[in-house]
Amino acid sequence: MQRDVKANGVRLRVAERGNGPSLLLLHGLFMDHTTWDGVADVLGREYRVVAPDLPGFGQSEKPPESRFPYGINAFADAVVDLYAGLELGRAILVGHALGGAVAITLAARHPELIARLVLVDALCYPPQPSLAQRVALAPVIGGFAFKQLWGRSAFKAYFKESYLSRDGRIPSARLDYYYECFNEPAARASALATLQATRDTRAVVAHIARLTMPTLVLWGRDDNLYPAALGQRMSREIRDAGFQLLEAGHVPHEEQPLAVAEAIERFCRPRAR
């Protein structure tokens, strides 16, 4: 089931399935709620799985920066509003990459909303700039090149080289779908604004020490964007956090959805481990 919900003044598209304890999935950059489909199919057997398109992405509204600043705090505020609008109560929160930074921020600011936290290749410590960031942040011509010149073949090549492991495969139709979502002028503007607004992650790093809820860090062993050493560091700096490496790149839930779903299930049922 999909529906639209207003959150932080922005219309969000939200996909829901299943019944049970609330489990919220937050996607990363250049993706939307469909990135979680394989995981949500499994978790929906036991949980009420909620997967929104963050502001500016997928089928959600893509407001100009004058209405929505596209920083991590703004995304977190939208998710807090989503909790209220959907009556989620205390939820299991899962965040990937950008969505991981949003999850860390929300968990530090509103621990009462989080039953358990799962961070999947989460944006936190400053990584080496990716190709997309280098293009987007280049002086003078960067914004123009990002909005006007980044075509389908370059987008798909970037996704394969940066997001997938060396032997990773996902359907070409999914890459085409992500490109079509990105290729709308408003979507390109939102992605550019997000890249610009999230390049300084010091506030996210500071939040790490404030996390007190049970936390699991999942990471792709072959992540080219955020090396696995960053995940290991994160698990050490979050009190009593678990850590698991998966045979995948930057998007384990795309390459290994069953493994990710099973890891989340085990973590949320400690007695079954």
Please tally the β strands and state the result: 8
**What's the helix-strand series?**
EEEHEHEHEHHHHHHEHEHH
- State the low-pLDDT regions, or none: none
**Largest sheet, spatial ordering of strands:** 1-2-4-3-5-6-7-8
Q: What is the end-to-end distance?
A: 31 Å
- Which class of secondary structure composition applies to the elements? alpha/beta
Major sheet description: 8 strands, mixed
Average pLDDT rating: 92
Strand composition percent: 15-25%
Distinct helical segment count = 12
Number of domains: 1
CATH architecture label name: 3-Layer(aba) Sandwich
Could you give me the name of the CATH homologous superfamily?
Alpha/Beta hydrolase fold, catalytic domain
CATH-defined fold name: Rossmann fold
Summarize the structure.
This protein has 273 residues and is α/β, with parallel strands linked by helices.
Structural topology:
Blueprint: E1 2-7, E2 10-17, E3 22-26, H1 37-43, E4 48-52, H2 72-86, E5 91-96, H3 98-109, E6 114-120, H4 131-136, H5 142-149, H6 152-163, H7 172-182, H8 185-197, H9 202-208, E7 215-220, H10 228-237, E8 242-246, H11 252-255, H12 257-268
Parallel strand pairs: 3-4, 3-5, 5-6, 6-7, 7-8
Antiparallel strand pairs: 1-2, 2-4
Helix pairs in contact: 1-12, 2-3, 3-9, 6-7
